[in-house]
Amino acid sequence: LLVGEVEVTRGLYRKVVGGAPASWGCSQNDCPAVMVTWRDAVEFANAMSRYEGLSECYVITDTMVVWRKGGLCAGYRLPSSDEWEVAARGGQDFKFSGSDSIDSVGWYLANSGDRPHAVAGKASNAYGLYDMTGNAAESVWPSEDTTAGNSDNTSTRNKGGSYPHRPVGVTETWVVPTQRYSDVGFRLVRTDLESQAEAERQVKEAESLARDAFLAESSEANTAPPVSENSGVQSKLSWTAVIYCAYMLSIGFCFGVRRFKAVDFIDIWIIAAVSITAPVWIPLWAGYKLLYGKEP
After folding, report:
1. pLDDT (tens digit per residue) in 35-72
2. 242-272 residues labelled b (16+ CB within 10 A) or e (exposed)
3. CB count, 10 Å around CB of 83?
């Protein structure tokens, strides 16, 4: 969101629309433009958009103002109440915009002399925004809807307090949108669609890179040879088989020599075959002996 560094001044108002509103105690070009209605403010926002070749944000009728495309319009507009508050706080937690001391950042009842002052006459907040507290109160978009009333029987908001009143923090008051007030002006904002589009592009690019990295890692895991845990298991099974065969061969050899008096080394091959197949024939031989009480 691009926020005006200062309130719209009489000089800027005159430059864009060809004339300035009535002055009230401060008539030079760098004084805030007060004595403007809420409708004047949204009409000036559209005029400012046309002046800079941007699309207008508002459709204005006799009784209604429609915020075209919500926050996605490219032209100038009033900030919403929430947008104004974020800008005023400046990422800090002061009572007033930029300080806990009202005298350092704003014009109010005790120091204003009951008149508005040139903009940026006090310190800014951390965002570099001036007069968010005091001087002229600032009109904002009155609701979360994209349609606002524009007649004597409706109301709209302004925020920040003003020069003829006691100091207030980041608060708001309600005013009639068709009335002019000597202590109410406005500040314009604009949605930076190019930066927003670039930020969205970077987010999508980061998501794409993360997805590609994940897929590549998954592919490597699926195609890599089983060299870790599976390899160890296979090695253990191979050695177990070798030990088992050698063990059964020795048992079979001893059994064959004792039982069949096999002393010729040629018979060892037969004994080896018998030994390796022992898990098959030994249970059969033992079962037969148990059933019939004699050896097969």
Report:
1. 999 999 999 999 999 999 999 999 998 888 888 876 67
2. eeeeeebbeebbebbeeeeebeeeeebeebb
3. 18
pLDDT for res 29? 97
Q: Where are the alpha helices (DSSP H) in 62-109?
A: 81-89, 102-105
Dihedral pair phi/psi, residue 111, rounded to 5°: -130, 0
CA 281 to CA 279: how far, in whole Å? 6
Q: How many residues does the chain have?
A: 296
Q: Where are the beta strands (DSSP E) in the chain?
A: 2-3, 58-60, 64-67, 76-77, 137-140, 147-149, 156-159, 172-175, 184-186, 189-190
Question: What is the distance between the alpha carbons of residues 237 and 56, in angstroms, rounded to a whole number?
Answer: 78
280's tokens: 């098959």
Q: Over the stretch 193-251, which tens digit does the pLDDT of each residue have?
A: 776 565 556 666 666 777 777 777 777 666 655 545 455 545 544 555 555 555 555 55
Q: How far does Cα 286 stand from its chain's mean position?
A: 75
Under DSSP, the state recorded for 23 is P
Task: Say if CB 125 and CB 132 are below 8 A apart.
Answer: yes
| pLDDT for res 255 | 52
Residue spans of beta strands (DSSP E) within 38-182: 58-60, 64-67, 76-77, 137-140, 147-149, 156-159, 172-175
Q: Beta-carbon neighbour count of residue 278 at 10 Å? A: 17
What is the rounded average pLDDT of the residues 97-109?
94
Per the listing, tokens 């120091």 go with 111
Q: Which two tokens stand for residue 265?
A: 């080394």
